[in-house]
Design brief:
single chain; mainly alpha; Helix Hairpins; globular
Length: about 260
């Protein structure tokens, strides 16, 4: 309880800091921001927090979570100014939701498995939002790969799913074969759609393996960047630039980088 009280005081202090920053005598930059500009910073901070998690850097994660929390309070402050809601409303809403959606903890309902917990959560969410489909309400600004992952999660909660990752992988291979055929026959429209089918299929493979494909791809992107920078560095050491060499020489350095950059 002492910890909760200390955290509460610090939370209140951060709310007061944002109030001061947005006040008449506050910071010109903070006063100029609106919900659209802060939304961009919110996403950036959330991704940086995820990066810290996967790097196993607890100190950086603590800092990044603070940044995420600050953006949450910043957005709540902006909408308080619009007389829409306050940070108090946000906290009250999430507290009530967590209690309502966990009747097996806060009420008398008995749920013994995590699968049943997810089923109950999805059922209540559908009822609360008065949605006609379990696929209604998907975040429109989500990256497409993340959206594919979420679609699979929602469909699987009602049994519409592959039995195992290998089954989903077989489907992905089928899609690759269809892409090859479309390329051979030079059917541009079919090629376009088959590319999408491959990504969607691989999102399902990832989900069944317990891997978030959006995060996995971000890690791969970072690895590629590091290895490509290694190529640039090695070429500069030889007094060369990227445009001075062919693919064979670059590929040789790339293979060297694979032994040093995982």
């Amino acid at each position: 309880m002492k910890y909760a009280k200390n955290a509460g005081k610090k939370f209140e202090q951060l709310v007061e800091i944002l109030d001061d920053l947005r006040g008449e005598e506050g910071c010109p930059w903070d006063r100029e921001q609106d919900e659209n500009s802060i939304a961009n910073y919110f996403l950036e901070e959330a991704y940086e927090a995820v990066d810290a998690i996967h790097a196993g850097d607890a100190r950086s994660l603590a800092e990044e979570l603070g940044d995420v929390l600050m953006e949450v309070i910043f957005l709540a402050r902006i909408f308080k100014e619009k007389e829409k809601f306050s940070i108090s409303d946000v906290l009250e809403g999430i507290n009530k939701k967590m209690i309502r959606r966990h009747p097996h903890v806060f009420a008398q309902k008995r749920i013994r498995t995590s699968e049943k917990v997810i089923d109950e959560w999805c059922r209540q969410k559908k009822e609360e939002k008065a949605r006609q489909s379990i696929l209604d309400g998907m975040a429109k600004c989500s990256p497409s790969l993340m959206e594919a992952f979420q679609i699979g999660l929602r469909a699987s909660s009602y049994g519409f799913d592959w039995n195992q990752p290998l089954d989903a992988l077989k489907k992905a291979k089928e899609e690759i074969s269809e892409l090859e055929k479309a390329l051979e026959e030079k059917k541009e429209d079919e090629t376009f759609h088959e590319i999408g089918d491959i990504f969607f299929s691989m999102a399902n493979v990832s989900r069944l393996l317990g891997i978030n494909p959006e995060i996995a791809l971000r890690q791969t992107n970072k690895k590629f960047i590091k290895r490509f920078k290694f190529i640039e560095k090695k070429l500069r050491e030889k007094g060369k630039e990227l445009g001075d060499v062919g693919l064979a020489e670059m590929d040789e350095i790339w293979e060297e980088s694979k032994g040093k950059i995982k």
